C-alpha cells in the first residue's frame, strides 16, 4: 500500500521505516532538508538503537523514500500525521502549529478514498476539528486517530511489536459509522502483519483514542512521582525505597515496572503531556479532575532540587558551591537515548552551575545535545575524565556503562579526591561502592 508519513522526527522517522518493513511503499515528508538528506542516506538524525540498520535496509529496498516536497504524498492511501506538539512558549498548552500546518498541506493534496491518520499527541477534541478541515477540502476523504506509544530507546521494537493498536474512528449516524468502519478496515490492511501476530486492537471513537494517549502518559508520570514521593518519606525515616518498590511491585495490581525512584521523569513527552492535559482540562471546565497532576509535576521537580541539596550537604553544607567541582555522569533524559529535552540530569547540572560550581559532564551519546542546551558544561570523553579532580560525583542517568563501573579501580577511586558519590538513579551496587571506600548517597535510601 502507498503510505505517506508527515513529520520525520522520532515518531515519524521510526514509523515510516517500520511501515516500509511491513512491505508498504512509504514516502516520509519533513520540512527540514538536512533531516531528509540524512534519512535518504539511511542515517538516523538521532541516536536510536536499531534504527540506522532498519532505515538502510528499507531505503535500499526502494520501499522507503524521504522528501521535503509534500506533493510526493499525493495519491497515498494513508497519510500518517507524526509532527511534534511541543509545549507553547508562554503557557502549558500544546502548540498545534505544526499539526495545523500539516493538515492545511494535506487538505490541498488529499484525494477521495484516502485517509489521514493522526499519530501525534494532541489535546482531546483536536481530531474532530481536523476531520472537518479534511472533509471541507475533500468530502470523500477521511480521518482517524491512531496514537503512538513508542518509547525512545525502544522505538523500533515498540513500532513493530506494539502492546496494542488503538484506532479512533468516526461514529454517530449510519453514514459516519460506515465511514469509521471503512477507515478501520484500511488500518487493518496497514497493520495486517501485526494483527496476525495477535497484537490487541481496540476500536473506539476519536476523542477516546486521543485521551488513551495522554491518560497513559499521565498514569506513567503519576506512577513515577508516586514512588518518588515515597522516596521523600523514606529519606526522613531511614527506609529503603527500592525495597519498598520491589515489595509493592510484586502485587500484580501494582506491578514493578515504572516504579524506579530517582531523579524522576523528563524527555520530550511526559512533562509536556501532563501540562498540556491540565491546560486542556481547564479549558473544558474540568480542571479539578487533573489537579493531582500539579503535584505529580511538583514531586518530579523536587527530586532535582534534592540532588542539588545533597550535593551541598556532602561538600561542606555551604549555600553556594563556588570552588566545588562536580562530575556528572549521564546527561540524557534516560539511558539509550541522546535526547536532552527536559533532561533531569541537565537541569541538575544547570542548577549546580548557577550555584557557582564547576560541572564536568559525560554521556555516551548526549554530549552534543547537552552542549547546545548548557554551553557552560565542561564535556568529557569518559567517566574517569569527568570525575578527575571532582569533589563529588553524581550518577544522573542510569546508562549500563555506569552500572558496570568498578568502584575499586584506582582510575576511578583516585580521581574523586573525597570519594563521594550520589546515585541519583538508584542504579549502583551501593554495598560494593561503600566496600571500596566511597561515601555513597542514594535518593530514598538509607546512608548505610
Ligand atoms: C514516554 C512513554 O513511555 C511512551 O509510551 C510515550 O509514547 C512517550 O513518552 P519516553 O519519553 O521515551 O516515553 O521515555 P520513558 O521510558 O517512558 O521514560 C520517561 C522518563 O521517566 C525518563 O526520564 C525516565 O528516566 C523516567 N523514569 C521511567 C523513571 O524515573 N522511573 C521509571 O521507573 C521509569
From TrEMBL:
What's a Pfam family in this record? UDPG_MGDP_dh
Q: Which domain of life is it from?
A: Bacteria
Q: Which reaction does it catalyse?
A: UDP-alpha-D-glucose + 2 NAD(+) + H2O = UDP-alpha-D-glucuronate + 2 NADH + 3 H(+)
In this chain, NAD(+) is annotated as bound at 30, 35, 85, 121, 152, 272, 341
**EC number(s) recorded for this UniProt protein:** 1.1.1.22
Q: In which pathway does it act?
A: Nucleotide-sugar biosynthesis; UDP-alpha-D-glucuronate biosynthesis; UDP-alpha-D-glucuronate from UDP-alpha-D-glucose: step 1/1
Family recorded in the similarity comment: Belongs to the UDP-glucose/GDP-mannose dehydrogenase family.
Designated name of the protein: UDP-glucose 6-dehydrogenase
Give the species this sequence originates from. Pseudoclavibacter endophyticus
Amino acid at each position: 500500500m502507498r503510505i505517506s508519513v508527515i513529520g520525520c522526527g522520532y515518531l515519524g522517522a521510526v514509523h515510516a521505516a517500520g511501515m516500509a518493513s511491513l512491505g508498504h511503499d512509504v514516502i516520509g515528508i519533513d520540512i527540514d532538508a538536512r533531516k531528509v538528506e540524512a534519512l535518504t542516506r539511511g542515517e538516523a538524525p538521532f541516536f536510536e538503537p536499531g534504527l540506522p540498520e532498519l532505515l538502510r535496509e528499507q531505503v535500499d529496498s526502494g520501499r522507503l523514500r524521504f522528501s521535503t516536497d509534500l506533493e510526493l504524498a499525493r495519491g497515498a492511501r494513508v497519510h500518517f500525521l507524526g509532527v511534534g506538539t511541543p509545549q507553547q512558549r508562554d503557557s502549558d498548552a500544546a502548540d498545534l502549529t505544526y499539526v495545523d500546518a500539516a493538515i492545511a498541506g494535506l487538505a490541498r493534496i488529499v484525494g477521495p478514498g484516502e485517509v489521514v491518520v493522526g499519530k501525534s499527541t494532541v489535546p482531546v477534541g483536536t481530531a474532530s476539528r481536523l476531520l472537518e478541515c479534511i472533509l471541507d477540502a475533500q468530502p470523500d476523504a477521511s480521518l482517524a486517530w491512531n496514537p503512538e506509544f513508542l518509547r525512545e530507546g525502544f522505538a523500533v521494537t515498540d513500532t513493530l511489536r506494539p502492546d496494542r493498536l488503538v484506532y479512533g474512528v468516526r461514529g454517530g449516524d449510519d453514514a459516519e459509522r460506515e465511514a469509521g468502519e471503512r477507515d478501520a478496515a484500511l488500518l487493518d490492511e496497514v497493520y495486517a502483519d501485526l494483527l496476525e501476530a495477535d497484537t490487541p486492537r481496540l476500536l473506539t471513537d476519536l476523542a477516546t483514542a486521543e485521551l488513551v494517549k495522554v491518560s497513559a502518559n499521565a498514569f506513567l508520570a503519576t506512577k513515577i512521582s508516586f514512588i518518588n514521593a515515597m522516596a521523600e518519606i523514606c529519606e526522613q525515616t531511614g527506609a529503603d525505597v527500592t525495597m519498598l518498590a520491589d515489595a509493592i511491585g510484586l502485587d500484580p495490581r501494582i506491578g514493578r515496572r515504572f516504579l524506579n525512584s530517582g531523579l524522576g521523569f523528563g524527555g520530550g513527552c511526559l512533562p509536556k503531556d501532563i501540562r498540556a492535559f491540565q491546560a486542556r482540562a481547564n479549558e473544558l471546565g474540568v480542571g479539578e479532575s487533573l489537579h493531582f497532576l500539579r503535584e505529580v509535576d511538583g514531586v518530579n521537580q523536587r527530586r532535582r532540587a534534592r540532588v542539588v541539596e545533597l550535593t551541598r550537604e556532602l561538600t561542606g553544607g555551604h549555600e553556594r558551591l563556588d570552588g566545588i567541582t562536580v562530575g556528572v555522569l549521564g546527561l540524557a533524559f534516560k539511558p539509550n537515548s541522546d535526547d536532552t529535552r527536559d533532561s533531569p540530569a541537565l537541569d541538575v547540572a544547570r542548577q549546580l552551575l548557577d550555584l557557582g560550581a564547576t560541572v564536568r559532564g559525560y554521556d555516551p551519546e548526549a554530549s552534543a545535545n547537552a552542549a547546545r542546551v548548557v554551553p557552560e558544561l565542561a564535556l568529557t570523553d569518559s567517566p574517569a575524565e569527568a570525575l578527575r579532580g571532582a569533589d563529588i560525583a553524581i550518577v544522573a542517568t542510569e546508562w549500563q556503562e555506569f552500572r558496570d563501573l568498578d568502584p575499586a579501580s584506582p582510575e576511578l577511586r583516585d580521581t574523586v579526591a573525597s570519594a563521594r558519590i550520589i546515585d541519583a538513579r538508584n542504579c549502583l551496587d551501593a554495598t560494593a561502592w561503600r566496600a571500596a571506600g566511597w561515601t555513597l548517597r542514594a535518593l530514598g535510601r538509607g546512608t548505610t
